[in-house]
Amino acid sequence: MTYGADYPTTEERALPAVVYALYILGLFHGLTLIIGVIMAYVLRGNAGPANASHYTYLIRTFWISLIWMVIGGAIALVGVPLSFILIGIPLLWLGGVICFVAWLWAMVRCIIGAVRLTEGAPIARPYGFTV
To answer: What's the pLDDT score for residue 7?
Structure first.
């Protein structure tokens, strides 16, 4: 598939690829995810339209997944003291499911975005919830 001559060359796709790699690694331990989002914010300003779409996509992935992780964590946190009287167990389960789905959603978005980058394609809808 050819997306036009206006898309950057392979060398210019190196930094978005690094940010995708940092995100994927960060979804397992966190620190590189923060480095990745900082890089995405810094690099988005000077990027061309195709790379800017990837950076916007990555920034939105970070914030949306973080919000859902906080919501899931808060629900699980409320369930911890209530689990001593057994009514909190469903809250613990629900919070865990929400956190897992948010993690899985972020992982899938990072993999799909990285594949689109290697194909030489910009993200068509960087503000959407899907690619």
So the answer is: 52
Among residues of the chain, what percentage have pLDDT more than 90? 57
Q: Averaged over 105-124, what is the pLDDT? A: 91
* CA gap 92, 72 in Å, rounded: 9
Q: pLDDT tens digits, residue range 53-112?
A: 999 999 999 999 999 999 999 999 998 888 888 888 899 999 999 999 999 999 999 999
The phi and psi torsions of 41 (rounded to 5 degrees) equal -65, -45
DSSP string, 83-126: GGGTTTHHHHHHHHHHHHHHHHHHHHHHHHHHHHHHHT---S-T
Distance between CA atoms of residues 131 and 125, nearest Å: 6
Look at residues 128, 74, 78 and name the one whose alpha carbon lies nearest to residue 98.
Answer: 74
DSSP single-letter state for residue 76: H
User: Which backbone phi and psi does 58 adopt, to 5 degrees?
Assistant: -70, -40
Judged by DSSP in three states, 25 sits in helix
Domain boundaries, the chain: 11-119
d(CA 98, CA 101): 5
